[in-house]
Amino acid sequence: MSDPVLKSAGQPQSNRLLTSWKEIADVLGVSARTAQTYEKTLGLPVRRDGTRVAAFEQDLRDWQLQRYKRPAREPEPVRPRWRLAAGFGLAVLIIVAAIWLWRTFWAVGQPATASWSGRTLTAVDSHGRPVWRREFPLPVENASFTPWVGDLDSDSIPETVTPYPHINREAEGWDLYCFSSKGATRWKMSVEATVSNQSRTFTPPYVLRGFVTFPSPEMDGSRWTAAVFVHHTMNPSVLLVVDAKGRRRGEFWQAGHMNYIHAADLDGDGITELLVAGIQEIPAQAVLLILDPRKISGVAQAEPKDNPVQLTNMAPGTEKAVVYFPRTALSRKLAPFDAAGKVEMVGSLIQVSVSESIDGAAYLIYSLTRDLAVADLVVPPAFESVVRQQGPAGAKLHLGQEEIEDLKRQVRVVRR
User: Fold this and answer.
1) Which domain holds residue 37?
2) Is the bond leading into 111 cis (omega within 30 degrees of zero)?
């Protein structure tokens, strides 16, 4: 029960002695039980003589006045435990969300892709935010090369492997670089060797034509890198293989151009083979070389072996197999050779594009099984378009079904 409002200040008051709880309660305007509670809990000014009680009226009114002047004390709220737990959980959720937002939208992550622009190579994270930039002395000539970004040494930190395809190709060649996740140079692959045939010597520079990373044949979780380079003006070319740290693991030469490289495990033994496509000078013909990355050395074997174009002072090459693609009548008319270009796995088949014109406008698509047997030969419309451009003479260059079957029979596989 709340205390009553005090009587008007103008009302006369006495200081009589009160000798019962009823009289005390009447002065306070409460019940006798409440007055007794005030004595026990709030220090009501009463006096006791045994069981008898007494109080002065003025003392009670002064006590009552002081009590009303004292500011009321708000009770402490009682918080249920489930509310405390919910509040703690909400705080944790906010912290986790803040960390996720920071990592996702504000913090720059690891490199995910890289690209060239002008003379600058820029690596960006998965949200397109720049991670690092490298400025080079010369602007790039060919920005179509796609840098590879991934984990080479199995430490969950990505590296970037890319050519530097600058405008001064003939004078300085093109090298292959590997950069750390911070943009520092880890290693560079370049050709410094000088080689010769029976009539002349070939000195650097060499121009990178293609590269590929592939699972290490040592099966340690790392990745190796293979790249093909061609002499800047003449025909020697070389395949270089390095491990994740850039240490040279193999060097294989050819009199002719190695233009394209692909990697695939052809025989299912867990070791990735290297498939290198190009032109072999001896004979002048499109070829596909199959090599084991654990055994990369020597020079591709020539036919005939004493051909003066063959590179000298080198051991026989370690290619596992060589696929020779025949030349068409169109190739013999428009170019000194045919040339194997892009190689890729399409399902379980090896698909090889073979150019039959010097500009590559006319080409055929061969499909080989994993054991290098010819499965199919497709004549794209581009080939027939070039045939028609030859005018009346083009009728003899057309490939009908009989000619297609004859070309398939002429594909030759030499195993080493």
Assistant:
1) 17-69
2) no
Other CB atoms within 10 Å distance of the CB of residue 407? 20
Are 248 and 357 in a shared domain?
A: yes
Instruction: Say whether both 174 and 285 belong to one domain.
Output: no
Q: Are residues 245 and 165 in the same domain?
A: no
- Regarding whether 299 and 161 lie in a shared domain, the answer is no
Coil, helix or strand at residue 295 = coil
Q: Where are the beta strands (DSSP E) in 216-284?
A: 223-231, 236-242, 248-264, 273-280
Do the domain assignments include residue 1? no
**pTM beyond 0.90, yes or no:** no
Collapsed DSSP state (helix, strand, coil) of residue 19: coil
Tell me the per-residue pLDDT of 122-180, one tens digit each, with 9 for 90 and over: 999 999 999 999 999 999 987 778 999 999 999 999 999 999 999 999 999 999 999 99
How do residues 231-284 score in pLDDT, each as one tens digit?
999 989 999 999 999 999 999 999 999 999 999 999 999 999 999 999 998 888
Statement to judge: residues 149 and 33 lie in one domain: no
Q: Measuring CA to CA, which residue among 264, 317, 312, 254 is closest to residue 287? A: 254
**Whole-number Å distance between alpha carbons of 136 and 133:** 10
401 within some domain: yes
Q: CA quadruple 404, 405, 407, 411: dihedral positive or negative?
A: positive
Count the domains in the chain.
3
* CA–CA separation, 277 and 352 (whole Å): 8
